[in-house]
Amino acid sequence: MLTLSAGANAPVSERAFATTVTWDARPGAPAVDVCALLLGTDGKVRSDADFVFYNQPTGGNGAVRCTASDAPGQACVRVALDVLPADVARVIVAASTDGRAFADVAGLRTEVTALGAGFAATCAVTATGPETVLVLAEFYRRGAAWKIRAVGQGYASGLAGLAQDYGVTVDDDSHAAAPTPHAPTPAAVPPRPSTPPPLPARPAAPPPTPGPALGGFPPAADSARLSDRALALRMEYRKRDAAAAMAACGLSGLRARVVVAMDASADMADIIRPPQARRPGGLTLQEHMENHAAITALIERLAAVAACAADDAEAEVWAYVNRHTRLRRKLSVAELPYWLKRDRLHALRHGIIPNQARVAAELADTYDAPAGSRPTLVLFFTASDLTDSAPLARTLTEAAALPVFWQFIGLGPTAFTTLRQVVTDLPARPAANCDFLALDEPGLITDPALFPELFAAYANWLTAATASGIARF
After folding, report:
1. Per-residue model confidence as pLDDT tens for the chain (473 residues)
2. Nearest-10 Cα torsion for 420, 138, 122, 339
3. Which residues lie across from 439 on neighbouring strands?
4. Cα angle at 336 between 260 and 4, to 5 degrees?
5. C-alpha span between 303 and 314 (Å, rounded)
6. What are the start-end ranges of the E strands in 118-255?
7. Which phi and psi (to 5°) does residue 455 adopt?
8. Alpha-helical runs (H) found in 257-376
9. What is the DSSP letter of 196?
10. I want to staple 37 with a disulfide (CB 3.0 to 4.6 A). Which of 92, 143, 366, 449 is the partner?
11. What is the H or E stretch that residue 237 is in?
12. For residues 166 and 138, is the Cβ–Cβ distance under 8 A?
């Protein structure tokens, strides 16, 4: 049986599945129920009827069913992909307790099996915190094919938190953990606007072959402390390219606070891969390795930016989805072994759908400073377009007087039409405080091509912001 760790996915060719959840139903243990949500392309339910749970056990014309079991400690959600309405793009499978944390549920296990024969997988999803709802797995369309992903994201707010995230009507007076018993109503969030085809991939030359001389300068102290000699050598080249880009943009010697806001949603899982890998059959093992290499390179590049541009050679890191966390440990060249050991940026699962506006508002509040203060450079990564332009536009407009520059970086093939429009259509300001950069294939662009893109708009803003008294060194 295939084991899918949280965030991992696999293609499926079968069309009917049972997601069976088992646990140790010993006396005094929390009771567990299963539920499912049918989501459209906007990531929201089409109506309250798309929330399938114990009081509404079927949905999608019978395509999704929650079934009870006579055996204690077992429940099941059955999904018939071929029967799903054409406008259903994802089916989320979750489990909830009677109000106690999943950390108290012993022996939790999730198995997804094709009905009849064929696909069988275990979703290795656990919870150790206060979560009372845990999203276990999701089926989602990828072109004409379907894939399954182990999710492992939880809510401490019960089914109400899960329902609200996906657009289900919840009774605010009673904070009910289920839809109100009125006729189904459409989800409140409008669908995402249509987007043009993705931009073509950036041309990228093969990466340079490192030489032994390191350009004539010895390794810096932070690189020298790295235990991996190949990594230390690679970081010297990355820092050299970052410093050259800063010099070309007129930023030599100008250091600021550097902040990284990283999308930690499941959408990050499949975006970094060679163009030829985008096919219905999903990723091969080699392509998964390339995926990992591209993410590793991105973290290394951010450490190089911090080494050259940050006051203390460290970047502050925020991980966000629907909610966000400011990580205590900073990203630096010396700390790379810690950051590269695991995917630290995606270890925190706070919801499903990224809320860029919410974390941007929190960043603006956190790095608010009087006019004339030292600047802050925010490198804001996202794998999803905005669902609503107004909140982010309002935050960026209000933050125009702050010594903060926002470099938004879109990762993957999404066109980011709404985010581009927000950045382009903001009202006139003394200094244009934001920019958008698309990286359709982050694993293919070289350091000498990437670093100037990260610094160019920031340098232009800094010139205008210094002249207008917004920022200073």
Report:
1. 888 877 677 889 999 999 999 999 888 888 889 999 999 887 789 999 999 988 889 999 999 999 877 778 899 999 999 999 999 988 999 999 988 888 888 889 999 999 887 899 999 887 777 889 999 998 988 778 888 888 877 888 888 888 888 888 865 433 333 333 333 333 333 332 333 333 333 334 334 333 333 333 334 545 545 667 788 888 999 999 999 999 999 999 899 999 999 988 766 655 544 444 444 455 454 444 455 567 788 899 999 999 999 988 999 999 888 888 888 889 999 998 888 875 555 555 556 788 999 999 999 988 887 777 889 999 999 989 999 999 999 999 999 989 999 999 998 888 899 999 999 999 999 999 999 999 887 777 889 999 999 999 999 999 999 999 898 87
2. 20
3. 411
4. 85
5. 7
6. 120-124, 133-142, 145-155
7. -100, -20
8. 285-309, 336-341, 356-366
9. P
10. 92
11. helix 229-248
12. no
* CA–CA gap between residue 55 and residue 203 (Å, rounded): 54
Residue among 439, 394, 431 at smallest CA distance from 414: 439
Task: Give φ, ψ of 72 to 5 degrees.
Answer: -65, 150
Query: Hey, what are 9's tokens?
Result: 């996915």
Can you state the angle between helices 229-248 and 285-309, rounded to 10 degrees?
Answer: 60
Dist. CA 392–CA 112, nearest whole Å? 39
What length does the chain have? 473
Written as six digits, the tokens of 390 are 């107004």
400-425 per-residue burial string, b: 16 or more CB within 10 A, e: under 16: bbbbbbbbbbbbbbbbbbbbbbbbee
**Residue 458 CB contacts under 8 Å (≥ 6 apart), including other chains:** 249, 251, 377, 405, 407, 435
The SS3 of residue 59 is strand
> Shortest CA distance to 140 belongs to which of 253, 23, 310, 282?
282
CB-based contact 219:285 (threshold 8 Å): no
**What is the DSSP pairing of strand 2-5 with strand 120-124?**
parallel
Residue reference for tokens 């077992």: 74
Owner of token pair 């080249």: 237
The tokens describing 80, both together, are 């018939």
Residue type, 87: D
Q: What predicted TM-score, i.e. pTM, was given to this entire model?
A: 0.53
